[in-house]
Write a structure and sequence with these properties.
Layout lengths: L1 E3 L1 E3 L2 E3 L6 E6 L4 E7 L3 H18 L4 H17 L1 H11 L4 H19 L1 H4 L3 E7 L2 E9 L2 E5 L7 H12 L3 E5 L6 H12 L7 E3 L4 H9 L3 E7 L2 H13 L3 E5 L4 E5 L5 H13 L9 E7 L3 H12 L20 H16 L3 E4 L16 E4 L6 H4 L6 E7 L2 H10 L2 E2 L1 E5 L3 H10 L4 E4 L15 E2 L2 E2 L6 H7 L1 E9 L17
Parallel strand pairs: 1-5, 8-9, 8-11, 9-10, 11-12, 13-14, 13-19, 14-17, 16-17, 19-20
Antiparallel strand pairs: 2-3, 4-5, 6-7, 7-23, 12-22, 15-16, 18-21
Helix pairs in contact: 1-8, 2-4, 2-7, 3-4, 3-7, 4-6, 6-16, 10-11
Bound molecules: nicotinamide-adenine-dinucleotide.
Length: about 500
């Protein structure tokens, strides 16, 4: 059985805990690797390596750091197929979707290639007579990233390039469910010339995460995952004096107004609900259908669902793959029964579709007449299950978002500029789409939700990412003529 080890100081190092976690191919149900889980000592070794590497990395010129970043970007682009292959083999998403994930990650490397521009400080000459004041941004030191199973390549790339380009040393703790793609990406970074220890990878579970959150030499941690763990990471990390950004779960609403283009809205709902088997934090899980568009919209969505091809993500004709684990597939299937018991109308039941073999497949589900008091509305299902909430007015639909626990993404489909403008201003979510169902910002803006979708003050990547991984230092300097010097006990004022 293939063993997956830590990557510390540029070397593959086995875990010392004696504990392991199996890695499966979700399309076949076969175990493909055994992952060593970190002990406290393993994490300490990674932190010690990163701390040492930071001392020289932070002093390396922007020019040299940027050259490595450009080389890394080229290697990731050239190896897109291999990264996508690893993603599909352990996550299950179809190869084209996996390649799309890599492409979105590359945007973040490209942003970090411009780090010279992003790290420019500000300078006021002659702020007071003969006195200059300037602010520069310094790296924090050793920082950590803890990432989820659903974007094993893209989410690590949300933070690693910026953190490292800013001069930090980074320790990644990827999801234990699909570790091969992030490991390969870390190897590519070394191939690009990154010095040993600047990027270490430790695999593990709560033991590793807790140690990273309490280790005195770790200055900040960036987390993406489910809301309960995000809140735990935020509270534990901040209690230990660390800077934390912790992105949590979501329940993203797509409003469809009566004047929307029906085909456009139906295409968008199906793509955004069932792409990657609904295992996206920006997936649409609720369509709020306003007024008399509801009936034709449900018909148009169901018709499109019947044409979807579900299968092994390596098959070119598969549009949707399996779910990540058997347990998760069973949990998602359980929600369909819960929805029916609570009074939702199951228009299409994913449990009815049969699949050959032992893969963790589930058909796509559409539930109509979902109401906000139902479990299937309140919980994040994180699978190929779309709920329709019927609303009488636009305001009723918009206010569903305000009343919801989460505020990651929200979208509106309409031709009405006034409604769209109101939605832009009043939708209670961090990322809003107007006739765009999955409004993931480009790499030079920043990604982050509101409410229980983000704990902390900064969102990820882009300008906010650079701010998160640096701290400002304000300098005041004077080069006086010694001939004019005298003692003055007054408070320094400007003049
Ligand atoms: P998860 O919370 O189970 O795991 C995330 C990370 O935390 C993993 O590295 C895992 O090993 C670690 N972890 C798990 N349990 C832990 C514990 N008790 N203590 C400390 N660490 C622990 O999430 P997941 O199932 O891997 O990912 C899916 C979730 O991530 C969904 O809720 C999804 O919405 C969310 N997500 C959010 C965003 C976003 O941008 N807001 C993006 C992607 C995924």
């Amino acid at each position: 059985m293939k063993q997956i080890n830590h990557l510390i100081d540029g070397k593959h190092v086995p875990a010392t805990s004696g504990r392991t976690s199996p890695v499966f191919n979700p399309a076949t149900g076969e175990q493909t690797a055994e992952l060593g889980l970190a002990s406290i000592e393993d994490v300490d070794a990674a932190v010690a390596s990163s701390k040492k590497a930071f001392e020289s990395w932070r002093g390396m010129s922007i020019a040299r750091r940027t050259k490595i970043m450009f080389a890394f970007r080229d290697l990731v682009v050239r190896n897109t197929d291999e990264i996508a292959r690893r993603l599909t083999a352990e996550h299950g998403k179809v190869l084209s979707d996996a390649a799309g994930e890599v492409a979105r990650g590359v945007e973040n490397i490209e942003y970090a290639c411009g780090i010279a521009e992003h790290l420019k400080g500000s300078y006021n000459e002659n702020a007071s007579t003969g006195v200059d004041v300037y602010t520069v941004r310094h790296p924090l030191g050793v920082v950590a990233g803890i990432t989820p199973f659903n974007f094993p390549a893209m989410v690590p790339l949300w933070t690693i390039p910026n953190a490292i380009a800013c001069g930090n040393a980074y320790i990644l703790k990827p999801s234990e469910k699909d570790p091969s793609a992030p490991m390969f990406i870390a190897e590519l970074f070394h191939e690009a010339g990154l010095p040993e220890g600047v990027l270490n990878v430790v695999h593990g579970d709560k033991v590793a995460v807790d140690r990273l959150l309490e280790h005195p030499d770790v200055k900040a941690a960036s987390f993406v995952g489910s809301t309960p763990i995000a809140q735990y990471v935020y509270e534990t990390g901040t209690k230990n004096g660390k800077r934390i950004q912790a992105l949590g779960g979501a329940k993203n609403h797509m409003l469809v107004l009566p004047d929307a283009d029906l085909d456009l809205a139906a295409d968008a709902a199906v793509s955004a609900a069932y792409g990657s088997a609904g295992e996206r934090c920006m997936a649409i899980s609720i369509v709020a259908a306003v007024g008399d568009i509801a009936d034709p919209l449900v018909d148009a969505i169901s018709e499109r669902m019947s044409k979807l091809t579900i299968g092994d993500g390596t098959n070119a004709d598969s549009e949707m793959g399996p779910l990540v684990t058997k347990e998760h597939r069973d949990k998602v299937a359980g929600y369909i029964g819960t929805g029916a018991e609570e009074g939702a109308t199951i228009v299409v039941d994913g449990r009815d579709q049969d699949f050959d073999g032992d893969g963790y497949f589930l058909g796509v589900t559409l539930m109509d007449n979902v109401t906000p008091d139902m479990t299937v509305y309140k919980d994040e299902i994180f699978g190929p299950v779309l709920g329709i909430v019927r609303c009488e007015t636009y305001v009723e639909a918009r206010d569903l978002i305000a009343d919801n626990q989460w505020g990651n993404g929200a979208a509106i489909f309409t031709r009405d500029g006034g409604a769209a403008r109101d939605f832009q201003e009043n939708a209670d979510a961090g990322m809003v789409g107007i006739n765009v169902p999955i409004p993931v910002p480009v790499g030079y803006h920043s990604f982050g939700g509101w409410k229980d979708s983000l704990f902390g003050d900064t969102s990820m990547y882009g300008p906010e990412g650079v701010r998160f991984f640096t701290r400002p230092k304000a300098l005041t300097s004077r080069w006086p003529d010694p001939a004019t010097s005298s003692v003055d006990l007054g408070f320094p004022t400007n003049g």
